[in-house]
Amino acid sequence: MSKEFKGKMFVFTAPSGAGKTTVVRHLLKKFDHLGFSISATTRDKRKGEKDGKDYYFLSVEEFKARRRSRKFVEWEEVYEDQYYGTLKSEVERLWADKKHIVFDIDVKGARAIKKKYGDQCLAVFICPPGVETLIERLTNRNTESEKSLKKRISRVKREMKFQNKFDKVLINDLLEVTLEEAEIIVEDFI
Ligand code: 5GP
Known about the structure:
Strand 5 and strand 6 (82-87) form a beta hairpin. Helices cover 42% and strands 23% of the residues. The chain contains seven helices and nine strands. By secondary structure, it is of the alpha/beta class. The strands form two sheets. Strands 2-7-1-8-9 form a five-stranded parallel β-sheet, with helices on both faces. Helix 1 (20-30) crosses helix 7 and helix 5 packs antiparallel against helix 6 (146-159).
């Protein structure tokens, strides 16, 4: 008889530019039994992003309507007038598909998920080796306007203070090593 599936969750959070997306993508490629939680957002689509793959891109009105009808597990106004949230339907979809869920969300959202799902959830904070490195990475990424970059840098400084609230802290100094450590974290928890 097949073993009963017990859905788990991995919440990866980090200050913007710490390499979180790279780690998450690597894990999803490496492990078949992981599935990505596609968030809803009201921010503009970036070049190369696809609706329903990277995010569900919603208007502010659509987002607020879903909020009113309690469709979110958690949501945040991550930046002024830019809303992000995890839909309940995503969690249901992935667990029905027998996938352990991987989240790439902000610090507050990560804490909300951890609080709600407790031992079913492992919350991992990815830490850049230093704030300077992080600001440099964020600037070199060249995806943001100057105003947006400033907002992101000020947020990074705030978010760094929360790292001791997580189950694991992963310091992303050498990417190869970080990816291996992330794999071990996943294998140990499942
Ligand atoms: P970006 O605009 O760079 O894709 O994401 C900005 C921030 O929003 C990142 O820290 C990302 O992890 C976070 N984020 C993405 N989806 C969600 C979500 O569903 N909920 C919350 N709370 N944050 C999210």
